[in-house]
Design a protein that fits this description.
Length: 350
């Protein structure tokens, strides 16, 4: 093994010489390639650390045709993204997984429809290798954009978009979602088991499949519920408060509420308290998400349906990296969608 000259920037050739391997072997290790024996990988990594070698990103991109960056696109206004802990938890999971793959996260926000032109130009410009997108609405143009430019993409949430020609664009799409319908069904059945009979539902925006699936789960468990027991919110505390006030105006006898997420549940909780009702004495309340710190810090703490938000983010990133890196034969991989389990967490509100 040779030692580097103290006045020179270490090169890949120097790393190979220090490790006692060929330049090709050192290059495969540096660029994350397969087929290098474990003890040689350790030697190359030791040489990188000892020499302080930093890969030339531009040269690496020319060789691998990869940028080492992934776009994370959240189809919501900035005010929602930074006020709803769901988004920070999911991005945290994505960031952890991308870090494990030595990939960079590029966050792209959608404030209004005009932002999609900017996003399309950025994605088409070759700045990222793939995209992770979540919180899409039914009429979101992003799926058509990524398909048009051939951008490998993994979605958070079951696809619900269509072309308008009867052909389902969601077919073959890779996505990660929670069992929204099953979790909602479990929540309502729990309320029924507690002896509650006038169970209302505050849904999220129904142009998102998560909200539509939770409404379906509510109806699975309570098929006889009339329209007076349903109101649509917007996944925010203010939306939950408006929906709760509307429901109480229609039916003062409501004795339980299943809210489509914890933030709407906190808004509903405030309105119930202002109306003189106790929770859970007069009205039992169940949310959805169990995203810290909302459910535990509520007064009383919320019974809720837990979904593994951070784990779903990690899964999204893992599926995308698998898709980019290919299978064992080196060919592009086409991973299957993943539906993760939910669990009811019982606290003081129900």
């Amino acid at each position: 093994m040779t030692e580097p000259r103290p006045d020179s920037r270490p090169t890949l050739e120097a790393v190979a010489a220090h490790a006692g391997v060929s330049r090709a072997t050192a290059s495969r290790v540096v660029n994350g390639g397969d087929g290098v024996r474990a003890h040689l990988v350790d030697r190359v990594r030791t040489a990188i650390r000892v020499l302080g070698y930093v890969p030339n990103h531009a040269a690496r991109t020319l060789v691998t045709r990869r940028t080492g960056a992934v776009a994370v696109i959240i189809a919501e206004p900035e005010v929602r993204i930074f006020s709803d802990p769901f988004f920070s938890r999911q991005v945290r999971g994505i960031a952890k997984e991308l870090t494990a793959h030595d990939a960079q996260l590029v966050l792209l926000l959608v404030e209004d429809r005009g932002d999609y032109d900017r996003i399309e130009r950025y994605l088409a410009g070759g700045h990222v290798d793939g995209a992770l997108a979540f919180s899409l609405h039914t009429d979101d143009p992003l799926p058509a954009i990524t398909r048009r430019i051939g951008m490998p993409t993994v979605y958070g949430g079951r696809p619900g978009w269509t072309t308008g020609t009867g052909e389902d664009d969601g077919e073959g799409v890779v996505y990660v979602d929670a069992d929204n319908r099953g979790g909602a069904r479990e929540a309502v059945r729990y309320l029924l088991a507690q002896g509650r009979r006038r169970i209302a539902h505050i849904a999220g925006p129904l142009d998102q499949t998560s909200a539509a699936d939770r409404l379906s789960g509510y109806r699975d468990a309570l098929a006889a519920a009339g329209p007076e027991l349903f109101a649509e919110g917007d996944f925010t505390p203010a939306g939950g408060a408006r929906a709760m006030a509307e429901l109480l105006d229609r039916d003062a006898g409501i004795d339980a509420v299943f809210a489509g997420n914890d933030l709407m549940a906190t808004g509903a909780l405030r309105v119930l308290r202002e109306s003189g009702r106790t929770v859970p004495g007069d009205v039992a309340l169940v949310g959805f998400d169990d995203a810290e710190p909302v459910a535990e810090s509520a007064d009383p703490p919320l019974t809720t349906v837990r979904q593994d938000i951070e784990g779903m983010g990690r899964l999204m990133a893992r599926l995308l990296m698998h898709r980019l890196n290919g299978g064992p034969d080196g060919r592009p991989a086409a991973p299957d969608p993943v539906i993760t389990a939910t669990a009811l967490v019982r606290r003081a509100s129900a």
